[in-house]
Amino acid sequence: MMEYAYLKENYDELVNDIKNVCTEYGRNFSDITLVAVSKTFPPEQIAEVRKLGQVIFGENKVQELKEKYDILRDAGFKDGVYGGILKDIKWHLVGHLQTNKVKYIVEFVDLIHSVDSLKLAEVINEQAEKHNRIIDILVQVNTSGEDQKSGIEPEDAEILCEDISKLKNIRLKGLMTIGMFTDNEEIIRSNFKVLRELFSQLKSKHGSFEYLSMGMTSDYRIAVEEGANMLRIGSAVFGHRNYQR
Predict the structure, then answer these.
(1) Per-block mean pLDDT, blocks of 10 residues, the chain (245 long)
(2) How many CB atoms are located within 10 Å of the residue 39 CB?
(3) In the chain, what are the domain boundaries?
(4) Which CATH class is domain 2-235?
(5) What are phi and psi for residue 6, nearest 5 degrees?
(6) How far apart, in Å, are the Cα atoms of 55 and each of 67, 100, 110, 173?
(7) CA–CA distance from 2 to each of 5, 44, 48, 51, 215 (Å)?
């Protein structure tokens, strides 16, 4: 669709920039997993970005995630325009998750980034068992010390990961953090270093650890430099959000 031509320009520019950052810091681009955060954007735009080769999409809110999943899954089976690729989208929940909403996404979600309590993990485990699934999750760590942010304190992450690893229908895939919203790059860098060091410490104890999820549109270059292998990027792909929708 010509009206969405800018999405290809945005996406190509982003991918090329990530490749350049990887080259600059001695990283392999193939080691980076990009999550296109599509919150507030319509299913039509997600479909266009999927056509560009992007497979993983992230949403912040359960209701919005479920609605888009239903629309695009159904379109993927019915619509020949996209060659069936829409039904193969992998969905990540990247925002805060309430225990009473787990049941709405457990059938299809591929990765939950925001587990920050044993109680939430236990509910995910219980719901996953009902659907005969093993759910991949990340533990969210609050490395910036901001009260308004979700996430467990860094010093408590080891015990939480140990407790979660005992749950049979959850697979602990790594850690996630959100850097402080600031123009001070050294503060952001210090937030990411905390998570990287924690990841290195815990990876030896948890063989399923794979993802170090940190970095968004404003700070993904720092995140790549500091070792992130999963980036959650929205506006650099889709454009500025209209939160009035």
Answers:
(1) 84 98 96 97 93 96 95 72 75 97 97 98 98 98 86 96 97 96 94 97 95 96 97 95 56
(2) 19
(3) 2-235
(4) alpha beta
(5) -65, -25
(6) 18, 28, 11, 18
(7) 5, 12, 10, 13, 30
Closest CA to 42 of 3, 83, 80: 3
Tokens read off for 7 = 């999405």
pLDDT, tens digit, 9 for 90 and up, residues 105-144? 999 999 999 999 999 999 999 999 999 999 999 999 999 8
Radius of gyration from C-alpha coordinates of the chain: 18
Residue 186, by phi and psi: left (phi above 0), alpha (psi -120 to 50) or beta?
alpha
Task: Please spell the DSSP secondary structure of 161-225, one letter per residue.
Answer: HHHHTT-TTEEEEEEE----SSS-HHHHHHHHHHHHHHHHHHHTT-TT--EEE---TTTHHHHHH
